[in-house]
Design brief:
Elements (H helix, E strand, L loop, with lengths): L7 E3 L7 E2 L11 E5 H12 L4 H8 L3 H21 L2 E5 L3 E3 L18 E4 L18 E5 L17 E5 L6 E5 L1 H4 L5 H10 L5 E3 L5 H9 L3 E3 L7 H9 L17
Helix pairs in contact: 1-2, 1-3, 2-3, 5-6
Length: 255
């Protein structure tokens, strides 16, 4: 049975959750995603100037986990600023506010109490298909449009098309951080993908380490979807014609 994962304490939430370059139409912008725990990490470390140990205690996580969250968050902000991209702060995972109405929509400052952010459900969780993250799926892609080919490599894919399979609205997330690594590209790509809030990924193949990282984040994996466009892969998903991989299928595969 999977070990119960700690909730992440969020003491302050943003009033504004979307930032874009001035004068650039939304249709011409790709998005970079900053998860809420990344926002909190930046607030504690860079604004409040807490040490990693102090900030980790406030978020109810280990110092190592805090370091990983902060590094990923800083990369997302830098990517948006340097690349002139839109930055979207996403909730991600399950949450509740002690003493507040859980059905209250949107982000509001939590002055009366802290927010608790849980990691996504483990694979096989009964509510996985109903989770909001399944409203978005990701497809490894050679380029930034639905008509580009599926990149058969997960870890070293050029990027990810993050798409609403019902409306086909999409954004493109580059995978440059993983491509720059000589080792561990799959794990870095899994972290980048987890930050988009997607609940599933369609690709060619996923290596065992990346497979484990995606599974730990509650992201479902469909493989063997190469030699088609991203649009065609999404169509197969909508028709229920993709096969979800099991952990045993990752054994012996490339990184």
């Amino acid at each position: 049975m999977p070990r119960q994962r700690k909730c992440r304490m969020i003491n302050e939430t943003p009033n504004v959750t979307y930032f874009k370059p001035k004068g650039v139409p939304m249709r011409d912008l790709a998005e970079v995603y900053l998860p809420l725990d990344g926002f909190e990490a930046i607030r504690l470390a860079d604004l409040n100037e807490l040490s990693h140990e102090e900030a980790a205690q406030q978020m109810n996580i280990s110092r190592q986990t805090f370091g990983r969250i902060l590094s990923s968050a800083r990369y997302a902000v830098a990517k948006a600023i340097v690349g002139g991209l839109a930055l979207k702060i996403i909730r991600g995972g399950e949450h509740n506010r002690p003493g507040e109405n859980e059905k209250q929509p949107g982000f509001t400052p939590s002055k009366a109490g802290a927010m608790m952010i849980q990691n996504r459900p483990e694979p096989g969780h009964a509510d996985t298909k109903e989770n909001l993250t399944m409203k978005k799926i990701a497809v490894t892609s050679d380029g930034p449009t639905l008509d580009d080919l599926v990149d058969p490599r997960f870890g070293r894919a050029a990027g990810f098309i993050v798409v609403d399979p019902e409306t086909l609205e999409f954004s493109y997330v580059e995978n440059g951080a993983a491509q720059a690594r000589s080792r561990g590209a799959g794990i870095q790509a899994a972290e980048t993908l987890a930050n988009t809030g997607a609940g599933a990924v369609l690709t060619g193949y996923v290596g065992p380490k990346a497979f484990a990282a995606l599974s730990a984040a509650g992201i479902k994996i469909a493989q063997n979807l190469e030699n088609m466009t991203v649009r065609e892969a999404v169509q197969q998903y909508n028709k229920g014609q993709v096969s979800w991989a099991e952990p045993s299928e990752a054994k012996g595969m490339g990184k």
